[in-house]
């Protein structure tokens, strides 16, 4: 007997549900990953993003900023030991993760810094200098 996925919505929405599932970046094939939670705030000079990545080697985390979008990618590896365990609960998430976060203001990504301490990754991104509007005077020819 095979399992049938329960869909509580109307059959018309099944295609939409499939499309939504295909867009999730944290699901790749049968390997389910996770999306790390973030705290984002700003001070006078920086946008700061904090996320908990306990148990993940900071060297295996990729951080990039492009077009004012911060992207975090990495993988939490499980040691592959041959053990038979009789789990009652298995809630610790392992696998790859991906998170793309639009930043609330223009930033200077080239000057960003990241520090990992006690499982907390803190990324500080300096705000870009505000672009002042340029006034153009119209010249008239006679």
UniProtKB/TrEMBL annotation:
It comes from the Bacteria. Residues 29-141 form the SHSP domain. InterPro entries: A-crystallin/Hsp20_dom, HSP20-like_chaperone, Small_HSP. It holds the Pfam family HSP20. PANTHER family: HEAT-SHOCK PROTEIN 20 FAMILY MEMBER. Belongs to the small heat shock protein (HSP20) family. This is Molecular chaperone. The lineage of its organism: Bacteria, Candidatus Falkowiibacteriota.
